[in-house]
Amino acid sequence: MRAHVLSDARLVKQAGRFVWLSVDAEKERNAAFTERFTVSGYPTFLVVDPVTEKPVLRWPGSATVKQFERILDDARVARRAAGGAGPEAALARADRANAEDRVEEAVAGYREALERGGPGWSRRPRAVESLVLALQGAGRDEQCAAVAGSDGAGLPRGSSFANAVATGLGCALGADDAAPWRPEALRRLEPLVREAAALPDLLADDRAALLQTLADARQAAGDARASRAALTRLWRFLEAEARRTPSAELRASLDSWRVSAAIGLGRPALAVPPLRASERALPDDYNPPARLALLYREEKRYPEAVAAADRALARAYGPRKLRVYDLKATSQERAGDRAGRERTLAEAVAFAATLPEAQARGGVRKLVARMQAQLDGLRGRGG
Amino acid sequence: MHLLLAALLSAAPAAGRAPGLPWILDDWGRAVAEARARDLPVVVDVWTPW
Question: Which run of H or E residues covers position B43?
Fold first, then answer.
C-alpha cells in the first residue's frame, strides 16, 4: 500500500481535504496512540474526527488508488452523517460503528446499507468488502465466508470482488477443519478466487495474496501437486514483477511473498538472491536481513541465519524486534548452540522489559513468556 | 504456519511516501491540533516497518 498506492500522484489532489498522519506502531513514542486506537493488523487506515477524537472509518489492509479515494470520500460523509434513511447514511453509520468496534451495529448497518442501496448501488462493492472484513475481524468465519460467497460473488469483477472473495476463502481456510459449513464454503469460494487472480489491474501485492491463498486452499484440500503449481505460478509472477519494477523499494515490497513462495516450494534458497539485493539497496531496513535469517534457518545454514539475525537486530526496534531474537534463538537451538541460545533469550527478555506497557500485550506478552520459560529451562538444566 | 513465519510474512513492507501528501510523522498531538484548526478529519496510516 505504501509502496504502490500512497506514492501515486493521483492522490495529491486529496492533500488539502485531510490532515495526514503516519504512525509507526513499533515506535515507543506512539505507544499511547496505539493503545487508544487499537488495530488488528498492519497497515490499517483510520479517519479520525478531531473534535470527538473518535475514528469514523477504519480500513484494514490495502486498496487501489480508486478504492482509497472512495474510502476517503466515504469517511468525510461518515464524519458528518448523523441520520438519514438512504444507503449512504446507513453506510456511514456502519463505518463509524465498525471503526469503534461495535461489531453487531456495524454488521447490521452494512446489511441495511446493502438492502437500501440495491444491486446497482455505486457503493455496493465497498460495502460488501467492508462487511466481509468486519466479519473476519470479529472472528465470525462462517458468516464471513457466507457473505463473500453470496454478496461477494455478485460484485462486478474488480478489486473489491477480489478482496471480498479472498477474505472469505481465508475465513474458510482458517476455520476449524471439522466445521460442517467449511467444505461447501471452500468449494464455493475457491473458483471465485481463481477467477479473481486472473483479473487485470490488481495491485501486485493483492495478486500475490490471491495466488498464495489458492496454494493454501489446495494444500488444505490435500492436493499437494496443485498447491505447488500455484506456488510456482506465484514465484513466476514475482520474478516478472521484479524485472519490470523500477525501484528497489517497490521490488522489496513483495519480498514477503518471495519468502513464503520459496519456503512453500521447499526451496528457501530461491529467495536468497532477491533478499540479498534488497538488503544491499535498503541498508537501513531490517526486513531484508530478518527475512534472510528465516530463509537461511530453513536451509539449515545456521551460522548465516544467526549472522543475518544479528544484522537485523542492529537495525530493529519495537516489539517486533523480539521476533528477530526468536528467529536467532531457534537457529541457535537447531544448530545445537546452547550457550548462544541462552544469551539470545536473555537479551530478548531484557529488551522486552524496556518496552512500554502498551507495546507488551497480547501476542508480544505470550512470546516473552515463552522465551522466559525457555530461558528458565536452559538455566535450570545448566545450573 | 509457524507463528514467527506468519508474523514475518504477513506484515506490511516498509516503503516510501507520496511526495505530494503532507504527512506528519508520529505526532498525534500536532495532527489533531492542526485538524481542529482547519476543521478537517485526520487520515492516519498505522503501519509497521515489516
Answer: strand B42-47
Residue A117: which residues within 8 A CB-CB, separation 6 or more?
A87, A91, A123, A124, A127
CA A361, distance to chain mean position in Å, is 19
Instruction: Kindly tell me if the per-residue pLDDT of A179 is higher than 70.
Output: yes
Mean pLDDT value of segment A233-262? 94
Q: How far is A380 from chain B (nearest CA, A)?
A: 25
Q: How many Å is the Cα radius of gyration of chain A?
A: 22
Interatomic CA distance for residues A310 and A332, integer angstroms? 12
Where do the domains of chain A lie?
1-138, 139-266
pLDDT of residue A187 exceeding 60 = yes
Closest CA to A167 of A187, A147, A183: A147
Residue B6 has pLDDT above 90, yes or no: no
ipTM of the complex: 0.85
Q: Does B41 contact A287 at a Cβ distance shorter than 8 Å?
A: no
Stretch among A46-50, A71-75, A208-212, A366-370 having the lowest mean pLDDT: A71-75
| B29 part of contact set with chain A, CB < 8 Å | no
Question: How many CA within 13 A on the CB side of residue A153?
Answer: 14
Asked whether the beta carbons of residue B42 and residue A3 sit closer than 8 angstroms, the reply is no
Instruction: Kindly report the CATH class assigned to A1-138.
Output: alpha beta
